[in-house]
Design goal:
Blueprint (H helix, E strand, L loop, with lengths): L3 H8 L5 H6 L1 E5 L4 H4 L8 H5 L16 H5 L5 H10 L7 H8 L5 H10 L4 E7 L25 H11 L3 E6 L15 H6 L6 H16 L3 E4 L7 H14 L4 E2 L16 H18 L28 E6 L18 H13 L2 E7 L10 H17 L7 E9 L5 E7 L2 E7 L14 E5 L1 E3 L5 E4 L2 E2 L2 E4 L2 E5 L3 H4 L9 E7 L1 E3 L6
Parallel strand pairs: 1-2, 1-7, 2-3, 3-4, 4-5, 6-7
Antiparallel strand pairs: 8-9, 9-10, 10-17, 11-16, 12-18, 13-14, 13-17, 15-16
C-alpha cells in the first residue's frame, strides 16, 4: 500500500504560478563532448527516431551523444574522431573542459539570459557520460574524480538567482555510461541499458545531494529513473518537501523488471517500430506518460492545440543540444521561426525551454547562438507583455481572410493578437492602408480599445471579427527592426465573437 507521501505525489499535477508565468526558459547542455563539439548535421531528430535501423542512434545529431557514437566504428562521429583526434579516449576531453572553465563568466551568462526574457535556467548537471558539473561527494565506483573541481552548478545557480531568475538542474537518471557503456542504437537499447547494481543508489544519492545543496526549482530527469515506483515516489515526495514550489518533468519513468523483455528480438523490433510510427505522427519526441509529472516535455515537437496540462517545448537553437561546430548558419533556427515558436507555444499554454550549447574549450556562448538570444531580447523588450504571465485565450490561433496567421494570448481584460504579417503588410482590399480583420473577436462596449505599441488604432466591428487599420504599423511599433514578420496588437475589452469559443 502506498504511503501518505506517495499518494500526495501521485495526485499532484499543478505547477506553481512562477512556472506557468515564465513562458521562456534556457536549457544548457555543456559536457566534455562540447570540447570535441561535433555531430552529423545531415539528419534531424525526427530522421533518427523514425528510422528502424538497429544502429540509428549512431548518427544522432546531438553532440552530447558523441561518446555513444564512438562505439560504432563506422559512424560519421568515429570517422571524424579518427581524422581530428586520432585514438584519443573520450575521457581526456574532461581535461580540456576543466581548463576552459578558467574563462567562464557565469554572471555574464545570467545577464544575457535575463535580457533575452527568460525566467528560468536549467543546467545539465550530469548527462549520459556521467560527468558531473559539481564536486560531488558521492563516489563513482567506476571512475574516480569524474567531475569538475569548480562548482559549476553552485556558481551558475547563484548567478541566475542574482539576475532574478529561477534555477533548475537536469540529471540523466536513465543512462550513465560509466556504469553501462553498451552501444545504444535505438530506443529499445536505452531501456535495456538503464544501469542496475550500484547505480540506482548512486543516482538517488546524487539527486539528493543536488537538491540539498542547490534547492533547484526544476528537477528535470531524462530517459527513465533506475528505481522502482515506490522508491521514486519517496524521492519526489522528499523533493517537494524540500523545495515546496519546485516542479518535476515527465521523464521520471520508474524502472520495471519488464524492461528486460526488450532484450527479446521480436519485442525489440515491435518497440522500435511503434516508436518510429509515434515519432512520425508527433513530428518529434513526446515521452511516454509516467505515473507522476508536473509538466510534459515534447522534444523538437509541439502540440496542435491548447493543452490542459502544463507543458514545455524543448529544443536546441540548431539541431543539437550540445555545441556543434559543424552546424552551418542554415541549421540554426531563423528569426521569424524562433519568435513564432515562442508565441505559438505560449498561445497553447506552454513554455519554451530553448537550449544553449556553450563551447567546451573556452566556456563561451557561440556567436550564432548569442545572436538568437539577442533577437529574443529585442523582440521581448518590445512585446514581452504579450508573452510573460499570459494564459491561453478561448482559441490559440486563427487565420485572417488574407492569410495572415494570428496567435492569441490573454491576461486580465486584454487579448494580445500576435500577427505574422504578409510582406507588404496588407490583408484587406484598401490600397491606401494596412487593413487587417482579426477573426473571432468583438468589442464589448464603448470602452473597448485596440493598441499597437501603446498607441490607439482605429477599428471597426464586422460580421467576421474586427477590422483594424494599421497604417505605418512598423514605424509605430517599438522595437522596429527586431519584429521581423511578427507584430502585436493589444485588444482591451473584447470578447470571443462566437458562442462555441466562449
Amino acid at each position: 500500500m502506498a504511503s501518505e507521501s506517495s499518494r500526495h505525489v501521485v495526485k499532484r499535477h499543478r505547477c506553481p504560478a512562477w512556472w506557468t508565468d515564465a513562458k521562456l526558459g534556457i536549457f544548457i547542455h555543456w559536457t566534455p563532448s562540447s570540447v570535441a563539439g561535433w555531430a552529423p548535421t545531415d539528419r534531424t531528430l525526427v530522421d533518427i527516431l523514425t528510422s528502424t535501423a538497429p544502429d540509428a542512434f549512431a548518427e544522432m545529431p546531438y553532440t552530447e551523444w558523441y561518446q555513444n557514437s564512438l562505439r560504432f566504428p563506422d559512424s560519421s562521429v568515429s570517422r571524424h574522431h579518427r581524422d581530428v583526434w586520432g585514438n584519443r579516449p573520450y575521457e581526456e576531453f574532461a581535461d580540456g573542459f576543466r581548463a576552459g572553465l578558467d574563462q567562464w563568466d557565469p554572471d555574464g551568462w545570467a545577464r544575457r539570459f535575463a535580457t533575452a526574457g527568460a525566467r528560468y535556467v536549467v543546467l545539465v548537471a550530469k548527462h549520459h557520460d556521467g560527468f558531473c558539473l559539481w564536486p560531488s561527494e558521492v563516489a563513482n565506483p567506476n571512475r574516480d574524480g569524474w567531475h569538475t573541481g569548480r562548482d559549476v552548478v553552485g556558481e551558475l545557480g547563484e548567478a541566475v538567482r542574482g539576475a532574478g531568475l529561477r534555477f533548475g538542474v537536469y540529471y540523466s537518471g536513465g543512462l550513465d555510461w560509466t556504469f553501462d557503456d553498451r552501444p545504444l542504437g535505438n530506443f529499445a537499447d536505452t531501456a535495456v541499458a538503464v544501469p542496475r547494481g550500484a547505480y540506482p543508489a548512486y543516482a538517488e544519492a546524487q539527486v539528493r545531494e543536488l537538491v540539498t545543496r542547490y534547492r533547484p526549482s526544476v528537477l528535470w530527469n531524462d530517459i527513465a529513473w533506475p528505481q522502482p515506483q515506490r522508491e521514486l515516489w519517496d524521492l519526489l515526495a522528499w523533493y517537494y518537501a524540500t523545495v515546496p514550489d519546485g516542479v518535476v518533468n515527465d521523464r521520471f519513468l520508474a524502472w520495471s523488471p519488464a524492461f528486460a523483455a526488450l532484450r527479446v528480438g521480436p519485442v525489440r523490433r515491435a518497440v522500435v517500430g511503434l516508436g518510429a510510427r509515434a515519432a512520425r505522427r508527433q513530428d518529434g519526441l513526446v515521452p511516454p506518460t509516467p505515473a507522476h509529472y508536473d509538466f510534459r516535455t515534447p522534444e523538437y515537437s509541439s502540440f496542435a492545440e491548447v493543452q490542459r496540462r502544463p507543458w514545455e517545448c524543448v529544443r536546441g537553437i540548431d539541431r543539437s543540444f550540445g555545441y556543434n561546430r559543424a552546424s552551418d548558419p542554415g541549421k540554426f533556427i531563423g528569426h521569424d521561426e524562433l519568435v513564432g515558436l515562442l508565441v505559438d507555444v505560449t498561445a497553447k499554454g506552454g513554455n519554451l525551454l530553448l537550449n544553449v550549447g556553450p563551447r567546451g574549450e573556452d566556456a563561451a556562448i557561440p556567436e550564432e547562438q548569442a545572436r538568437r538570444l539577442d533577437w529574443l531580447a529585442r523582440w521581448m523588450g518590445a512585446h514581452g507583455e504579450a508573452v510573460a504571465a499570459t494564459r491561453p485565450w478561448v482559441r490559440a490561433s486563427a487565420t485572417t481572410r488574407g492569410g495572415t496567421e494570428v496567435r492569441f494570448t490573454a491576461r486580465d481584460d486584454t487579448i494580445w493578437c500576435v500577427l505574422h504579417r504578409t510582406p507588404d503588410g496588407r490583408d484587406g482590399t484598401d490600397p491606401g492602408a494596412s487593413v487587417i480583420t482579426i477573426p473571432g473577436v468583438r468589442p464589448r462596449g464603448d470602452r473597448s480599445t485596440a493598441r499597437v505599441g501603446g498607441v490607439p488604432v482605429p477599428f471597426t466591428p464586422t460580421t467576421g471579427g474586427v477590422e483594424l487599420r494599421l497604417t505605418d504599423l512598423r514605424e509605430r511599433t517599438p522595437g522596429d527592426g527586431a519584429d521581423g514578420a511578427w507584430s502585436v496588437v493589444a485588444l482591451e475589452g473584447f470578447d470571443a465573437s462566437d458562442a462555441r469559443a466562449a
